[in-house]
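Good morning N.,

You mentioned wanting to compare the apo and holo forms, so I went ahead and generated the holo version with magnesium ion. This is what I fed in:
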Amino acid sequence: MVSVHGLIRGKEPELGRDPDTGGQVGYVLDLVQALANNATVEKVELLTRKVESPAISSDYAVDEEWLSPDSRIVRLRCGPRRYIRKEALWPYLDEFVDRTLQHFKAQDRLPDVIHTHYADAGYVGLQLSSMLNLPQIHTGHSLGRVKQQYLLEGGMSSAQVERRFRISRRIEVEEQVLDQAAMIIASTRQEADQQYGLYERTRPNKIKVIPPGLDLSRFHPPERDWHPTHAIQKEVDRFLTKPNKPMILTIARADRRKNLEGLVEAYGKNPELQERANLVIVAGNRDHISNLEESAAQILTNILLLVDDYSLNGKVSLPKHHQPDEVPDLFRLAAKRRGVFVNSAITEAFGLTLLEAAASGVPIVAPDDGGPVDIIRHCRNGLLVETLNHDALADSLLNVVTAGPRWRQWARNGLAGVKNHYAWDAHVNKYLKEVRLVIRGNRKSTRQRIELLHKPPLLRANRMLALDIDNVLIGDGGGQKKLLEWIDLHHKGTIFAVATGRSLEEALTVIRDNSVPTPDVIISSVGSEIYYGPKILPDLGWATHIHYSWRREETAIVLKEVPGLSPQPKENQAEFKISYNTNEKMPPVEEIAALLASHGLRANLIYSHGAFLDILPIRASKGRAIRYLSYKWSLPLEKILVAGDSGNDEEMLEGRTLGVVVGNYSPELEQLRGHHQIYFAKAGYAYGVLEGIEHYHFFESKGCESANLLSAE
Ligand code: GLC
Ligand code: MG
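and this is what came out, ligand included:
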């Protein structure tokens, strides 16, 4: 499981402490537990963000927390140490991917399936599943397009929505997940049909409706001699003149969508309802309203104003504090007082609290939309209502609290419905049935790709061979053949990478024309793009990383003034690469760099063969791509042998990598002679590479034959 945002811990989860630590966190924790309890599941790991800050419990900084013998939370660093809201996490998710790979590498087995929760984890899962060839299952929990629609209807401008919620990024990821995930889990029919229906790449047959389960050991009706904890009853009743009247209970975050103000108005406008029942609103914890987040403070203030306007003192209770373990008692108190639980939200995707009410023997009133429609259909334990209509809402509530024998029937129906449809056991059985199909499907397709069989995933590798293509791997047919035989023989545990100035298309053509097998990694366009074979999947994290400070248009305009530069043909230009042919009129590279700097532009200038100038983002080059791969796949630089012949190879030859300059090198590499770990081969082309392999005893050093290829060295 991957659930990146929020605060997650097994002991006393602090659900509802902020908008990011609520329903999803509870859902994920319950699912992990229920799966771990199932005999056919060997192990469940929940990967989440590690957070370290004096403001929160140190529990969230613990690397590993065992939940049961078969399940644990693993916390991985992602961006700053402090807690940040989910919308601010996007730039850091690639780090989460990298750390997950490192974590996997240290395990003795890869998971059979990756289940991601919410769009941020969806992004992480897209990369993991494609790089590791693992099926991805995804649960959206809430969807960007739905939120966007709702915010726009609420009067926000699209620019505001974008600024505050990075909504287009989220939606794009959701589209990709819909396209690539093996299965999408929705909680309700409405979510599957209508919400996912807003997406372009939705595929209805991929979406399975499996409602979340409920912990029935926590939620059950009050026994005859039951009493709530003293504290919570006191907290509720201290606001009420006649506490024993039936109670209209609502438990919801102070969020506009929950329509709590509408509920108070409905109650305030109906004197008979006030006569028959009290209204209890449990909206999180607070000491001072002024310390709450702005929108929550606004809602609570409005509620207090409405209580005053309608003179509801003594009839409306607004408890300030409750512990998570007192929530079941709140429901039981409502049941004991023959009350009703209301969800007054405008729309509710699922409505977990409605099920908790049902499991506690409390009839419900809920919006005639989304999850509640399924719940009422399965449980027949109350009424659906147009929640924005105050009169209708009040009438329904009155209807339930004055129902007599029907109240009992509703309470009983709810109990049975929850057991049959919404227990975690029921969920897990349906879930595993679908997951088994997904895993089987994935195995089959793997088998079909014969190439994959003798190409171990990158994760298992302990060394990498990274070769420039032109004039290194190819150029001398005899040497190439010999080198490829070597690679084939030693492929186990070794990643075969090419690093070229050519575009991906051209590189693939040359590879094919020269009968070179598809590399595990293709670094193309002078290191500005990275792909993984055999499916040629782009490394999304690399693009995000090098994007930094790159202003392609402006850079190209400034370079128009420079003498001696003429643009290369269109097919040599790329999003992160501007390339020129040069002649003797070209000023020194340092001067061109200074010119760009004087315009506030930053770029990496790479001069090769005395004839080409490539302009790349400041973070991109073949060398930096190699370092990125080294980090991402936990391969020490000393385990990477690189071979090149010209200027664009310089950065990957330098430093801790095992550098080989082939005999037929261009003059600009002469200056590397004598540098640490750079071997100048006497032989040219692929024979030069073989000479370098021998020089470094590359395939002989320890670790190559390591039996457990998954363990890091
Ligand atoms: C390849 C590319 C070209 C680039 C050169 C040097 O020939 O096609 O665009 O300038 O390598 O990196
Ligand atoms: Mg070359």
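The longest helix spans residues 424-448.

Happy to go through it together on a call whenever suits you.

Best,
F.
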